[in-house]
């Protein structure tokens, strides 16, 4: 008995007549004979044919959808449709029953809303098991990409004492009990008496700490959870999401754009190679879903075509100023179709604008750079024009912003002045400023939202469906 999972069995050659032992869950049971068994190793079920006469009535009754079973048998060529191999079962044992009247995951199409309410079981479905296997492979590819290029993986803190990023509302971390928080003379909460002796929150980004590593180890990257208490219930926002943040010393914005593009292409090429069966399934799923949409809203490319397109084509690099010109003169702007009309230079871009540029105008991934200073974070390097910063956003079809990054302000005086202008206290970021005092150098980095990458690669419409247990406003179940 050599094989122990379905994926391996289906891949190996010359397998017929061998004895196998498998454990998994029943997906369906037909005609008191055919079990579709899934063990999670692949999207494919293996058909297990039981000997009806030799199997007791009691066992037959317990072969229900969702039950955990163990089987032994011989691999044989299958005459059935849709599979080449089946197991002629000689022994079957029910390991864990599943009451068919109570088990929520029936062999039929369930809505994603229903499955979100059953997130503990939804990974037993084809769609979610495929998404989660792709997610797992993608996260390995992320590490492989950076490790192969001598980046150091840095674990930045999750509890943070500074809100330097200004990337959004934060979740407070405290040990004060209900209504018992001590107050100062002027009536404010006295955080000096809290656990850490200061106000602390869950981090929105590991960037500032990652910079300290780049300025010592040269190349660093984070890959960890980040938290934003934004009250935006969209298909692209989570309150808890995973972010990948590389940071590189002696690299300017052009190098940063090259890195982001190369990195994204690498991880997508990786899963195209490693997740063939899952992507083929997800491709079909999306094609089916698209058919239910009005013609005008359907995507021109299938999922696999989109993934290959990204790997094979250059991303278009466009300055913010050029993008504003394009948007200002665009049809939807003139016809007042944008919810936020673009009237002048300096406007912040909304996802409707990003998606217009990517999906309608350029029809390829776009990197926008050199944004107005006042719509971007304090740490981005000021250009000589005094009004734009060396920022970049990578925009993707169907997603909008997938990456945000910049060349960092490495000049001490310029950074201090910027912080003063924005009311960011120097005492809070003394350590960040130290990097500009001792051996400062040009450096750059970016943040890629991991779930947005998984969304793009799996073709899932809602970000809640690409993370095991989504955290969003009014929802922290499981
Ligand atoms: O553009 P952001 O806010 O950039 C930063 O946090 C920088 N510190 C990154 C850096 O330069 N090291 O976030 C980076 C990316 C976004 O492009 C987006 O893909 C993702 O993080 N993101 C979210 N993903 C899911 N849910 C949310 N609420 C997200 N907010 C940002
Ligand atoms: Mg951003």
Folded structure, characterized:
The chain is an alpha+beta fold. It has two domains: 99 residues, Nucleic acid-binding proteins (OB fold (Dihydrolipoamide Acetyltransferase, E2P)); 308 residues, Bira Bifunctional Protein, Domain 2 (BirA Bifunctional Protein, domain 2), CATH 3.30.930. It has 14 helices and 16 strands. The strands form three sheets. The protein has an eight-stranded mixed beta sheet with strand order 6-10-11-16-15-14-13-12, sandwiched between helices. Strands 1-2-3-5-4 form a five-stranded mixed beta barrel. A hairpin with a 3-residue loop joins strand 14 and strand 15. The longest helix has 23 residues. The chain is globular and about 85 Å long. The structure holds 4-amino-1,4-dioxobutan-2-aminium adenosine-5'-monophosphate (4AD) and magnesium ion (MG). The site of 4-amino-1,4-dioxobutan-2-aminium adenosine-5'-monophosphate (4AD) has 24 residues, from strand 11, strand 15, strand 16 and helix 14. 4-amino-1,4-dioxobutan-2-aminium adenosine-5'-monophosphate (4AD) binds next to strand 11, strand 15, strand 16 and helix 14.
| Overall 3D form | globular
Instruction: State the CATH superfamily name of the largest domain.
Output: Bira Bifunctional Protein, Domain 2
Distance between the termini: 38 Å
Would you tell me which CATH topology of the largest domain applies? Answer: BirA Bifunctional Protein, domain 2
Please indicate the count of domains.
2
Q: Which small compounds were modeled alongside the protein?
A: 4-amino-1,4-dioxobutan-2-aminium adenosine-5'-monophosphate, magnesium ion
Largest sheet: 8 strands, mixed
Oligomer: single chain
Rounded radius of gyration (Å): 27 Å
- Considering DSSP H and I runs of 4 or more, what fraction of the residues is helical? 25-40%
CATH architectural category of the largest domain: 2-Layer Sandwich
Q: How many strand elements? A: 16
